Protein 1
Amino acid sequence: MGMPVFVIGFSGSGKSSSLRNFKPNEVGVFSVAGKRLPFQSELKVAMNSNYQTIENALQRNKLRAYVIDDSQYLLAFDSFRRAKEASYTKFTDYAVSFYNLLDAIKRTSPDTIVYLLHHAEETDRGMIKAKTIGKMLDNQLVLEGLCEIVLYAETDGKKYQFLTQSNGFTTAKSPMGMFPLEIDNDLKAVDSQIRKFYNMEPIVDKEEEKK
């Protein structure tokens, strides 16, 4: 069973830049918003990806790591397309579509990890969570509840890091002993640690790593 991992944070918090140490043969990158990566890289990015293109690639499962950049826009773009519909059932449809994506991730091989880089939002109670498109959808689908690891990206303008456990105001979480409380925003290092913790296969085989 594949593993979804959420990386949530506000715009500019270092989510996309965390990909900087991956090599092209190690990860597949889907850009939902069609944005280029914020650093020079040879990584191939599938621009303007949608549910179908992402799920088709996951079904082929040629890699052991994937990244869905700006995954919150999968919900937002669905909402824009159906903005004129008056029926409340569309919110159930939004939840089902995103749930089906997470299910497709879990149906990949046991050594596959899919990182969802997702914008954060602050609730009325001051809690920082994964951004959705309103309380009606939140009542049906708690995104963070569907995976074991949620990292929170934050910066003070100089240092960029991930929080790996909740400080009482975020939904960050990870298994006990996997990470220290604060880590560098290096998603390849995160990937290596997850694989070590769960005895998963490395991101690429040794012969592939030499290429």
Note: The longest strand covers residues 113-122.
Protein 2
Amino acid sequence: MSEEVDVLIVGAGPIGLACGIECEKANLNYVIVDKGCLVNSLYNYPRNMTFFSTSDRLEIGGVPFISHNPKPTRPEALEYYRRVASSWSLNTHLYEQVEKVKKEKDIFQIQSSKRTYQAKNLIIATGFYDLPYMLNAPGEDLPKVKHYYDEPHPYYDMDVAVVGAANSAVDVALEVYRKGAKSVTMVIREKEINPRVKYWVKPDIDNRIAEGSITAYFESNITNIEEHSIDIKTPGKQITISNDFVLAMTGYQPDFSFLKHVGVKIGDDEFKTPVYHENTMETNIEGVYLAGVICGGLKTNAWFIENSREHAEMIVKAITDK
């Protein structure tokens, strides 16, 4: 038997929760479905991560976010969003993946890994952190290759390769180096460390590379991964170095396949920006709305929690106005 709702929200991140809160305010029957845990992307952030935003910019639903630090930490954020979900008694169905969506007349028939739904409206707030860019190198499926970084301790006295040149790669390289990795090698496609790396961190990584504490191969990529070594193609030569772990900090991308499955039109611009109405967040499919980071396509730095919280209000207003 199908569960009937006014709104089905895909994604239990901060913006998905904000959409649920607005549904609560509007007395709409809704459910928030997520294939992982509550705020799953935040849970997968490095354990010692500190947010760029201050706590007040991460608040939703009028619930105060009090941090003991100038910028909140990952554990504080997890605690905060648990408190938000509990305070609003949000209807969340976690560890449940949406598998099929089909629109019949004005109703969406939705099949998840656990049950079926009939929904009048669909909000997609899936973010982008679940699909890493792959290295596409033989051996990438070995357990030693990680696309998510947790903490430095497992890499003590290990030969570690970090792939990437942006903030996450730089942070990881510096942390595992300072926490006792035997060697740290950065493998970077570009000619230099990303100029947009945090201004207070960039001199640090530049100096560590210059002094040889961290080895960097620019305009290079990993071509093969073995249990105890990796092959690197670098200008003018191919080298093999000892390696225990590959930390691929290569970035993440939205789930375009799900958007296409639903029927959402994807733009032909370089960022593959999904098509939606800026005032209502409604897509080319009537009744399907986008919220949060997913709106930027591959331009994943366009939308954050702090500047997309308003999407929830816009969407629910558009739904109730109908």
Note: The chain has two domains: 3-131+252-321, 134-248.
Protein 3
Amino acid sequence: MVEAWNRANAVIYYGKSGAISTNRREEVEMAALCLRILQASLVYVNTLMLQAVFAEPEWSGLLGSADRRGLTPLFWGHVRPYGEVRLDLGSRLDLSGTNSRLG
């Protein structure tokens, strides 16, 4: 799991091949803090998506307790590592599970 998460870090913090290329303390701290914000945001959105899926009746009883213990929000297959990302700050991500299917 740690190796997979390190690959995710390389994707979300892709500038300079994921390496911090300065020895200025302020810039190193800023880069590390920005990476932590990105990590926390990704885990938060993933957790909301998992909750939305398991709120649906057909999914709620599908997994047993051992399966649920194995769930983790540390996935990043849905992240677009390259290309342009357009943010629409006037709309919200629908995580209620009513209007969209997560696959």
Note: The radius of gyration is 17 Å.
